[in-house]
Specification:
By secondary structure, this protein is an all-alpha fold. It is built from 20 helices and no strands.
Length: 505
């Protein structure tokens, strides 16, 4: 089989990202519905408790597979066939061990945070860890084969199962437990789906202990990087949960949860797409650099308008849905939504580095990011005290500064200049920021008696029109690239609305 051209690799990455973006949008709607219901039912204090659980879950989630699938994906399809037995039994062993450890630590964590409810929550979470091990290996097979459409369908199913489970359990009065119990059903669904698609049976293969040292050597750094990544995304909850009342941590967590779902899911999808694609071009750094830059451009073309739309409409949305129950979280949501696309840069850098097998460097970079976030949260409380908006501004400002500088240096090792780096995302972000500012100014012309539904519609339509016009004028090349890799029906609609010339795919 002939080696795919650079254009084919780039198009594969873009097409995969498009499929994953579709699953992202559908999944976002489902998760949003679940969060709306939880926000009706749960109190500020209960959301503060969920923040602690989310922080712990993010740090231990990697142990459901021990980082082994990423190692196998990096090594390619031939290695999967040879090592799938050893890899599976390592995954299962690590996840079982991690579940036992978490279950034993639950009482101590509950004592540290002064809340006995954490014991049952964390022990349920511990039981779900080994359930995810089999599906993790089968998902790796899908990634190796670049079957992004199947991964997207599976992602939509997982979102649906989790969302429906959360809504049903919250409605039945399970409270914060509705956050963790659906993970059982998600694990079962993912295993069934991946098995039916791949028909792979790694659990029937012998463990081949001779291969364990080689796999574990690389997986060790993958796990270390993932744990640090969990802290780098959730370490602030763990610090704030100890230093501030849960009634303040709850709105902070709620705001972050509601406004970073888009970028969080994009980051997850990006890892599924960019990492396996880049492993196919490991011997050609120049091609890797082109794929990275192109991915950043497409990423911000999706993430910037989606996030900034939240800034525009969140005030009337909160009033309509929660009747000012979460009013204190509105400025927090606007702060997070405005800058959340910037937080994805680390995922791009890590995907690129991991594709080269540089697991140790990946772990060290995420450790630095985690320590920076934890230190930022501590400093924010010291400076701003119980002013939760001030705390958020300090944390997000310091985090963005670190992310832009460090990831700019990392991408520089791929031959990406500062000009290319800034040019890949700043135009999209500035266009989104301009459309946001203009929309908020025009929104002041609406009469004070305007209803929430009309206000939301007017602001959303105004923002989308302004962004489309500015993007058509200033981001023509990025729009054309997106049309090339989008699924055909979506591309046709996209080209017709924005009056883009049809291009060969």
């Amino acid at each position: 089989m002939s080696e795919p051209s650079p254009q084919q690799f780039g198009r594969e990455a873009g097409r995969g990202f498009s499929w994953m973006s579709i699953s992202l949008l559908l999944g976002k709607v489902l998760i949003l519905l679940a969060q709306v219901v939880l926000a009706w039912i749960l109190t500020n204090e209960e959301f503060g408790l969920l923040a602690i659980v989310a922080g712990v879950a993010a740090c231990i989630k990697i142990f459901h597979d021990g980082g082994v699938p990423q190692v196998i994906v990096q090594r390619g399809s031939d290695e999967f066939e040879r090592l799938q037995g050893a890899a599976f039994w390592i995954c299962l062993g690590v996840s079982l061990f991690a579940g036992v450890v978490l279950g034993c630590l639950a009482p101590f964590l509950a004592k540290f945070y002064h809340d006995d409810r954490l014991v049952s929550l964390l022990r349920v979470l511990a039981i779900t860890l080994p359930l995810g091990a089999p599906a993790a290996m089968l998902r790796a097979k899908l990634q190796i084969d670049l079957r992004f459409r199947m991964i997207s369908i599976m992602a939509i199913g997982k979102f649906a199962v989790r969302s429906i489970g959360m809504i049903a359990l919250a409605w039945l009065g399970y409270g914060v437990m509705s956050f963790v119990i659906p993970l059982f059903f998600v694990a079962v669904f993912e295993l069934a789906f991946t098995f039916l698609v791949t028909r792979a049976t790694p659990w029937l293969h012998p463990p081949r202990f001779a291969h364990w040292p080689s796999i574990l050597r690389d997986a060790y750094w993958v796990v270390a990087a993932a744990v640090c990544k969990g802290l780098a995304r959730n370490g602030d909850y763990l610090v704030l949960g100890r230093m501030l009342p849960q009634s303040l941590v709850g709105p902070y967590f709620f705001a972050y949860l509601m406004t970073t779902q888009v970028t969080g899911l994009i980051a997850l999808n990006l890892r599924h797409v960019l990492f396996p694609v880049m492993t196919k071009m490991i011997d050609d750094p120049a091609r890797q650099a082109r794929v990275i830059v192109r991915s950043i451009r497409l990423l911000f073309l999706v993430a910037a308008p989606a996030s900034m739309l939240i800034v525009v409409i969140i005030r009337p949305v909160e009033s309509l849905i929660w009747h000012e129950k979460w009013l204190v979280a509105v400025p927090l949501m606007q702060i997070f939504a405005l800058v959340s696309p910037m937080l994805i840069f680390t995922d791009i850098s890590l995907a690129a580095i991991t594709a080269q097998g540089r697991f140790r460097l990946s772990a060290l970079l995420t450790l630095g990011e985690a320590l920076w976030l934890i230190g930022s949260a501590w400093l924010a409380v010291v400076v701003a005290g119980t002013n939760i908006t001030g705390v958020a501004l300090w944390i997000i400002g310091l985090q963005i500064a670190y992310t832009l500088v460090v990831n700019g240096l990392v991408l520089g090792t791929f031959g990406i200049s500062a000009r290319q780096y800034l040019g890949a995302f700043l135009p999209q972000w500035l266009v989104g920021l301009s459309a946001t500012g203009l929309t908020l100014l025009l929104g002041r012309l609406l009469p004070e008696t305007t209803g929430d539904v009309v206000t939301i519609g007017a602001l959303a339509i105004t923002y989308l029109v302004l962004f489309s016009v500015l993007a058509r004028l200033l981001l023509f090349e990025e729009l054309q690239q997106f049309a090339k890799v989008a699924p055909r029906p979506a591309a046709a609609i996209f080209q017709k609305i924005l009056r883009l010339p049809r291009t060969d795919r």
